[in-house]
Amino acid sequence: MTLLLDFIRKQIGWCPNANRMAIKTRAETSSAFGAGDRLVKNPGPAGSDPSGKPWGWEYEHTQRGTLIIAAVAAVILIIIASMLVFGPVWVTVIVAGITIVALAMFSTLTVSVQQDALRLWFGPIRLIKKSWPISDIASVTTVTNRWYYGWGIRWTPRGPLYNVAGLHAVEVTLVSGKMFRIGTDEPEELKRAIEQAQYGGNPAARSKG
């Protein structure tokens, strides 16, 4: 049986236990930072990525704007019902189009932290996106937004807010002194990911700094 598996692996590069081994490897990697971490080592030789650069640390999380989706979906249903009863009117068609575009743009918020930059984008089509170099970030803290700050892209006394749901966020202060907030349902994880990127994936470097 072992000889047969070795032959298959050599011929097509596939191993029946590859998936099990990959799951085990991912579990061992994630355990280095504790349960719930989304910091993942890039593949490559020890201490570097495939290009030979030092290890990068990556985090990516998408939050769904459930209430925004429900509200926009309700408006769309009302418009469709109106068109079925009264017939298509150009005003309702335009409103329906705008509503659908708004749903596509603000239905989700994805935040990505990599070794070089903090990035975010709204919706699956990424019409609205922002990025900041990690080297420009001075500090990050977890915060709770006021309920009236709302969702979408809003201006607050603490700078711009990018949010699709909930009140939790991280507040990022840049070296220039400017601040902004990113809404998230994983504030601690996002904060930790940004700090990991700041210190090259070495948690001990933060305490030494």
Sequence-ordered SSE layout with sheet pairings:
Layout (H helix, E strand, L loop, with lengths): L1 H11 L5 H13 L9 E2 L15 E8 L1 H21 L3 H17 L1 E6 L3 E6 L5 E6 L3 E8 L7 E5 L2 E5 L4 E7 L4 E5 L3 H12 L4 H6 L1
Parallel strand pairs: 8-10
Antiparallel strand pairs: 1-2, 2-3, 3-4, 4-5, 6-9, 7-8, 9-10
Helix pairs in contact: 3-4
What's this entry about, in short?
The chain is an alpha+beta fold and 209 residues long.
Plain-language structure description:
- With 209 residues, the protein is an alpha+beta fold.
- The protein has a domain at 70-101.
- 38% of the residues lie in helices and 28% in strands.
- The protein is built from 6 helices and 10 strands, in the order ααββααββββββββαα.
- It has helices spanning 2-12, 18-30, 66-86, 90-106, 187-198, 203-208, and strands at residues 40-41, 57-64, 108-113, 117-122, 128-133, 137-144, 152-156, 159-163, 168-174, 179-183.
- A 5-stranded antiparallel β-sheet has the order 1-2-3-4-5. A 5-stranded mixed β-sheet has the order 6-9-10-8-7, with helices on one face.
